[in-house]
Amino acid sequence: MIGPGWTPEAWRLLAADHPGSSCHLHGPDDGSILELAADTRRIQAPDCAVFFALRGPWHDGHDHLEAAHAQGVRRFVVTCLPPDHTTWSSDSDVVVVTDVLAFMQSMALAQRAKFDGPVVALTGSNGKTTVKEWVAQLLPASVALHRSPFSHNSQLGVPTSLWSLGTHHDLSLVEAGISLPEEMDKLQRCIAPTEGVLTHLGEAHLGNFEDARHLAREKCTLFRGCRRVFMPAALLPEVEDVLACPAVTWSLDRQASEADLQATATEQPGLFHLTWQGASTQVQLSMHDDVSVHNALTASLVALHHGATLADL
């Protein structure tokens, strides 16, 4: 992922301050650091990249250090120096740490700290990417928007997404997905969201969680420190005891009078009557299954609070 750019000095200072790091700094003193890379097949700007030797069940980035160097990479983060490292490390900056991913996340956190605008973090059992993209479509063109590419919402996807966040942006939309307990705490610290979006909670994605309540609690960890969270009003009973900030809601239920965005279905399929802040309009949705309707209303709610008008929907 290409980002706004760091100086070699800033990179080296962060490396030296990282807990337990060992730095071997023989790389170039000039240029810019623009890219966080973990796959030699996808490096876009090797002379401006940091290569992270990540390990997984089926791969080990340490097997590709020479290949990255051959492409022009001169900055590396590893957990160990292989015996033959002098073939590629003698003219490179090499930072040895116990956790390569944690170092990448620390770089993303430092990049995030430079931005003082609203950062909206989206999570849910499904609908994260759809809602994010629909919000982007609804916002005025004058909003300089940063958003996660594709469905990059994992422990690796979040830091690479944040790396492209710049001070020229007005608003950031960042997805966060988890598959294990305690993962969301790491993502929350990395994203440091000011606002949140909860799209959906479903038992089909319980996986490694004890039950639906445990999953809801883990998801809501993302919203720690947020000033508000956008969600369907129907989800409030499932999360209100673990949500530490006000909820901004939409509802299709005429009885839910406290919802910020009220939607009423008409007799015509896909046609809805919307009421927000005393004004009303009608919108026609091309897809009118329940999931699409819910995603569209969540996206509309977020967009209305960030510069869109009912006429934009």
Chain-wise SSE layout:
Layout lengths: L1 E5 L1 H10 L4 E4 L7 E5 L11 E4 L2 E2 L2 E2 L4 H7 L3 E4 L7 H4 L3 E4 L3 H13 L6 E5 L4 H11 L6 E3 L9 H6 L8 E5 L7 H9 L3 E4 L13 H9 L7 E5 L3 H4 L7 E5 L9 E5 L5 E6 L2 E6 L5 H15 L9
Parallel strand pairs: 3-4, 4-7, 7-8, 9-11, 9-12, 10-11, 12-13, 13-14, 14-15
Antiparallel strand pairs: 1-3, 2-8, 5-6, 15-16, 16-17
Helix pairs in contact: 5-10
How does this structure look, described?
With 313 residues, the chain is α/β, with parallel strands linked by helices. The protein has 2 domains: 2-107, Udp-n-acetylmuramoylalanyl-d-glutamate--2,6- Diaminopimelate Ligase, Chain: A, domain 1; 115-312, Mur-like, catalytic domain (UDP-N-acetylmuramoyl-L-alanine:D-glutamate ligase). The chain contains 10 helices and 17 strands. The strands form 3 sheets. The chain has a 9-stranded mixed sheet. A 6-stranded mixed sheet has the order 1-3-4-7-8-2. A two-stranded antiparallel ribbon has the order 5-6. α5 crosses α10 (290-304). The longest helix is centred in the last third of the chain and has 15 residues, at 290-304. The protein starts with a strand and ends in a 9-residue tail after the last helix.
